[in-house]
Amino acid sequence: MEWNVYLAGEIHSDWREEIEEGVAKENLPVEISAPVTDHPASDNVGVDVLGEEEKDFWKDHKGGMINAIRTRTLIEQSDIVVVKFGEKYRQWNAAFDAGYASALGKKLIVMHPEEHTHALKEVDAAALAVCQTPQQVVEILKYVTVKE
């Protein structure tokens, strides 16, 4: 079986690449997917495709809806959703993705620094695993996907 793993959340660090490298190194039966992580492309897709808007609300609305096509589809197709909350910026999109995955009954792994434990207690309660590093995610994936 090949497992579909969606990597949601923070886009300002290379955590996805670390997980992808670890999965490849361990030769795990895992297919990785993710949102568009090119921040300007993600922010501007709505106006780039559908035309300019005078108000930021409508620019963001257009972009958010187009991005949701990818995000929702890949979360729905996933076996496991990993959501990383980073050390800076409020990540409402990560919280939404975690909630959406949980509502769909997806297996959820949450990753965040220890200092976010209190703020994310409800998100953590929905997860099957809570960790702090990409390496821990790889170890979890190794354990659950490899037959002994």
What's a quick, concise take on this entry?
InterPro entries: YtoQ_family_protein (IPR019884). With 148 residues, the protein is of the alpha/beta class.
Secondary structure layout plus pairing:
Layout: E1 3-9, H1 15-26, E2 30-33, H2 39-50, H3 56-77, E3 80-84, H4 92-103, E4 107-111, H5 121-126, E5 129-131, H6 134-145
Parallel strand pairs: 1-2, 1-3, 3-4, 4-5
Helix pairs in contact: 1-6, 2-3
What does this 3D model show about the protein?
It is a single chain. Helix content is 51%, strand content 16%. By secondary structure, the chain is α/β, with parallel strands linked by helices. It has a single domain (3-37, 77-145), classed as 3-Layer(aba) Sandwich (Rossmann fold). The chain has a five-stranded parallel beta sheet with strand order 2-1-3-4-5, sandwiched between helices. Helix 1 runs parallel beside helix 6 and helix 2 (39-50) packs across helix 3. The relative contact order is 0.20.
Please tell me the CATH architecture by its name.
3-Layer(aba) Sandwich
Contiguous uncertain segments of 5+ residues:
none
DSSP helix fraction: 40-55%
The total domain count is 1
Keywords:
148 residues; alpha/beta; Rossmann fold; five-stranded parallel beta sheet; 5 strands; 51% helix; globular; YtoQ_family_protein; YtoQ family protein
